[in-house]
Amino acid sequence: MQIMVNDEAHEVSARTLAALIDELGYSGARIATALNGRFVPVTQRAETLLPDGAQVEIVAPMQGG
């Protein structure tokens, strides 16, 4: 399936947002996710299905000082 992750095209086999995070190597990382412009909390990632052509944003919190 073809999706966009952080404005880059990806061909993935994942069908859920949680599976996508694992497939892209983000498992265990503290990240925030959005699907098609809507925030998806960590508790809903496993049941959030990815449609073909989905727009996914994955961001890591930044620390500053």
From TrEMBL:
The residue stretches assigned to a coiled coil in this entry are: none
Name the domain of life: Bacteria
Q: Which residues form the signal peptide?
A: none
Return the CDD domains for the record.
Answer: Ubl_ThiS
Gene from which this protein is expressed: thiS
InterPro entries, per the entry? Beta-grasp_dom_sf, Mopterin_synth/thiamin_S_b, Thi_S, ThiS/MoaD-like
Protein's recorded name: Sulfur carrier protein ThiS
